Structures are given as structure tokens and as C-alpha cells.
Amino acid sequence: MRRLSTTQAKRLQKMAQAKVRLEQFKIDQIIPLIRCNRKARVQLCEQSVPVNSLSLRCFRAHGTNCARCGIKGIYFLLERDARENRFSLRLYAQSESGVEIPMTVDHIKPKSKGGKDNLNNLQPLCYLCNQVKKDTEQKWNSHRIKKVENHETAIN
Q1: Is 33 a member of any domain?
Q2: Domain span at 139
């Protein structure tokens, strides 16, 4: 588990309050549903939810642990921003005090520096580690990130 400063905890709690949440799912309920197909969607809680995003495919290919600090994503939430009307799946970890930490997907070589949107250039990071990394080119725990030769076979 990860310890948070008071400022970090307040920021994360404020982010969570801006979400409309329908249901929580275990990782093993969602990972098998993730597909590479552009139109891949599943019905969850009477909502048609995309399961083909690059973020979801990264979690399937590289795991749900933060490549920097090692915190483990433990559940997906079906949610949407309060201002939007479409729902999506978001992976979360929890701090020692129980505060939700969103798991993000980070470009190892930032797009601003010519990095590509492909699985070989992505790593899972918790929100806090992603804020620390910013737009630098850093790859942590590279032994955890397996190289993906064929995206179709790695995802389907």
C-alpha cells in the first residue's frame, strides 16, 4: 500500500467526487473482455461500454501494477465524469488509508517528444507517479513490461 500526503489525499478525493459511478468490478471480470477490435463493446449495468481502449489493452498486456512504485490496481469502476454522458471503465488502486488512486497509462517516450501510441511505448503508472514523471522519458521496472510483438495475439 502507498502512503499519501494530506494534499494528495484531498486532491484524489476531489477527483472522485466529480464522477458518477455505477458499479465496481474485479480485475478478473474485466481483463478477459478487453479486445483490439475497434467496435468492441460489452453490456455492463445496462450500458454499452467500450473495451478496446489503449489504456485497457495496456493493462491487459502489461499488468495492473504501477511500473514505478508497484502499487496494484485492485478493481475497475464503471463511471463517467459528471459533465459527460458516456460511461467507461477505470482502474483504481488504494492507498494505506483507503483513498482511491486512479491507475493511468503512461507513454514511456512522451508523445510530445515523438513517442507513439502503441503497447511497446506504454507502461501502467498510478496517477501520483505519472504526475512525478510528467513528460520525461523514463521507463521503470522494465522487466515487468514485456515487449509486445503482435498486438492482436497479445490482446485477444
Answers
A1: yes
A2: 6-155
Q: pTM of the predicted model, to two decimals? A: 0.78
* CA-to-CA separations, 46 to 25, 27, 41, 88, in angstroms, rounded: 14, 19, 12, 13
- CB atoms < 10 A from the CB of 97, how many? 10
What is the distance between the alpha carbons of residues 62 and 16, in angstroms, rounded to a whole number? 25
Q: Map grid coordinates 513490461 to a residue.
A: 145
Is 66 within 8 Å of 129 (Cβ atoms)? yes
Q: How many domains does the chain have?
A: 1
- Residue 1, in any domain of the structure: no
- Is residue 16 assigned to a domain? yes
pLDDT tens digit sequence for 65-79: 999 999 999 999 999
- Of 139, 141, 121, nearest to 61 by C-alpha is 121
